Amino acid sequence: PAPKPLVEFKPHAQPVVAVASAKSDGSEFLAGYADGTVIHFKINPALPGDAPTEVRRLAHGSALNQLAVSLNAIGGPRAATAGPAGGVNLWNLADGAKIAELKGDPTIAPTIDALTRENTVATRLKAYWDAQGPEAEKLWTAESEKAKQSGEEIAKAKREIVAKRNEFAKLKSAVPAAKEEDITKASDAIAVAERTLTGALRNRELSTRLAGDAFARQTGAKSASQEAESTIAALKTEIEALQKAIPEAEKTTLSVALTFAPDGASLAQAMKDGTLRLWSAENGTWLEDFNAGTGIRSLAYASKDQLLTAREGRNLLVWNLPGQEWSLAQTLGDGKEPKPFVDRVTALAFNPEGTLLATGSGVPSRSGEIIAWNTADWSIAAENDEAHGDALTAFVFSPDGSKLASASTDRLVKVFDATTLELSQTFEGHTSHVLDVDWNADGLTLASAGADLQVKIWDIAEGQQKTKVEGFGKEVGTVVYVGGTDNLLTASGDKTLKLANQPLPEAGDTFLHTAAASIDGKLIIAGGQDGVLRVWDAVGKKLLKAYPSPEAEVAKVAKVASE
């Protein structure tokens, strides 16, 4: 027999275009209507013939043709709505609140943020070079004047020598013979005049060199200032173009299908242009885009790592999601032979372009060796077997990738040419192991952290310490410049995590080993001896999440079970 409906009801005078369960036991569901209204209904299991009661209504804001629900999303049940007008709304089913509106091109905002950070750095560089130019010009003017004065002194000294030699010759040929003491005085006068000439020549040479160096610095400063100014102008143009593109992107970014991941972590959206876009189901943060081709009609997860797309022409494709699976790409060394690594590898860093990998090894208390690898074919680009006198602890490439800075337990920070690994600078001052090093985004300063309870800031141009940060109770294992600013993030064995030298809350009662900041400086993560990873909102200075190690959780469960 044909099934009979238990109840029919029409709470809204629009076509129903989508339905979805809103509770795992089936007692609640959502109905989406063509005008953009979504009604949350609740069924009374005791009265199956009665019309469901209305819990609340959600207003998508425009025509609706897509509805998806996740009952196990992080942060609570979620719903997503979309329509032919473009945007996607993410909802909290618990209270009906809109969590986020997902529209336009999500790459524009972070791109603008990145360009704005570059602009901030360029502005800082322009101010620096604008100050350097007049100083160099002042020195050039002073040394040029000294060189001019030296020329006068040289001419005078030369004539003085001629005169003294003539006087000496007259005394030597005088009849009757001159007194011996007068001849000696005349000879001494010649020596004095010659020394005066030598000094004047030396002064002119020095002033000429210093004036030349100063002129070169002045010219370089003017050029660098102009470069920064031109960069600022170019960045401004790029930012304005992106800002103008936002409204158009909101109009043209059209959704054709939505689905939540089985684990509730993400929301997948298929776009009319063939883009598959992944969002955080918790808060609507954009995660990633990849191209799946046009003509997608439907979308579903096969597993948390795979998406299915049904396309025009009866075409079904399976997609492995980017970043869901890690595979070993390369192994350097075998852990046995002394080449290429004589001992443990204790430091690693990629250059900004990703074309070079720097590795640090060495025998403790004997050597610190650096190798630069070409990542295209993993051949050795350069090596330095005598880079340090002890083990390497950290590397960082300069922002432009031309230099490599290293930290070592030999108490030194060194800077090498990134291409040849030839030493260009050495910074001395730490009284114990140097544990970390980082380069300011403007390329003007380095920061190093040490077991001597200090962070030191080094002036690259001057080749000396600029300032230092103290107040740590134990060794400082991490130092990071945050978000293109001068602000430093430090992690220390004294259980403190500091941003701009101010402690962040809830860092745990543990020795902190490491910390890092997101590129935009908005998120901070740190880890320590207790095996817990903690994440902070760097702007609000508050702890967002703590992730205990999986092993610790397993041990905890096992302990409870045994009790």
In short:
This protein has 563 residues and is α+β, with helices and mostly antiparallel strands.
Task: Find the CATH topology of the largest domain.
Answer: Methylamine Dehydrogenase, Chain H
Uncertain residue segments: none
Biggest sheet, strands in spatial order?
Answer: 1-2-3-4
Oligomer: single chain
CATH architecture of the largest domain: 7 Propeller
- Going by helix content, strand content and strand pairing, the class is alpha+beta
Task: Give an overview of the whole structure.
This protein has 563 residues and is an alpha+beta fold. The chain has three domains: 16-103 and 253-320, Methylamine Dehydrogenase, Chain H (7 Propeller), CATH 2.130.10.10; 108-250, Helix Hairpins (Orthogonal Bundle); 347-562, Methylamine Dehydrogenase, Chain H, CATH 2.130.10.10. The protein is 27% helix and 36% strand. The chain is built from three helices and 35 strands. It has helices spanning 108-173, 180-252, 550-562, and strands spanning 16-21, 28-33, 37-42, 53-59, 66-70, 78-82, 88-92, 97-102, 255-260, 266-271, 275-280, 286-291, 296-303, 306-311, 315-320, 347-350, 356-361, 368-374, 380-388, 392-397, 403-408, 412-417, 423-428, 434-439, 445-450, 455-459, 464-469, 476-481, 488-492, 497-499, 502-503, 512-517, 523-528, 533-537, 542-547. The protein has a four-stranded antiparallel beta sheet, with no helix packed on it. Strands 5-6-7-8 form a four-stranded antiparallel beta sheet, with no helix packed on it. Strands 9-10-11-12 form a four-stranded antiparallel beta sheet, with no helix packed on it.
